[in-house]
Amino acid sequence: MAIYTRTGDKGETSVIGGRVGKDDVRVEAYGTIDELNCFVGQARSLMEDENLADVREQLLEIQHELFDCGADLAFVEISEAKYKVKSEMAERLEGWIDSLEEENPKIERFILPGGNPLSSILHICRTVCRRAERRAVTLGRSVDINPEVVTYLNRLSDYFFSLARAANHRAGIADVEYVRSAKVFRN
């Protein structure tokens, strides 16, 4: 089987239930989710340390769920019966966030992205996730979509923030606060 089909050579691509331009807002939304999934894979590849085994497995599950998000956004016609993203997925992320925040040092101000290479790539995951969320919201303004995808992406960006901080903490690296920030987090 050839990997190329030549069906997209004129700037269109297939979605579930039809064809759209490759620059369609739907393609932009699930394409950004695909981009995020690549960065998540890169983050996983940096997790050789045994003290990261728990979150390495979480990220693998998230990679599968990102494919689910993309699939749900690829429907031209709303198909609730076939949706894969459910509210329980965001709720599970909340549990993971709570666990990470229990181990993370308290912060009062915004922090600068960075620290070790793993934390840095997790901050990239966070920002690409926020962009994916914005693209999904834009899509949802013009067509019906599974609203759970937006909720999931919103919670997922919070997860990446907490995980980036935990990656630094587990490596013994302190987060750097944005010194010009007011105190924005309540402890």
Task: Lay out the secondary structure.
Elements: E1 12-15, E2 18-21, H1 25-45, H2 53-73, H3 87-103, E3 111-112, H4 117-142, H5 147-170, E4 176-177
Antiparallel strand pairs: 1-2, 3-4
Helix pairs in contact: 1-2, 1-4, 3-5, 4-5
Report the CATH architecture.
Up-down Bundle
The beta-strand count equals 4
Number of helical runs? 5
Unreliable spans are none
Tell me about the biggest sheet? Answer: 2 strands, antiparallel
Gross morphology is elongated
Supply Rg: 18 Å
Strand content: 5-15%
How far apart are the first and last residues' alpha carbons, in Å?
57 Å
Q: Estimate the mean pLDDT confidence.
A: 91
Q: Summarize the amount of helix as a percent range.
A: 55-70%
Spell the H/E element sequence: EEHHHEHHE
The top level CATH class name: Mainly Alpha
Q: How many domains make up the 3D coordinates?
A: 1
CATH superfamily: Cobalamin adenosyltransferase-like
SSE-based structural type? mainly alpha
Give the CATH topology. Answer: Hypothetical Protein Ta1238, Chain: A
Placed side by side, the strands forming the largest sheet appear as: 1-2
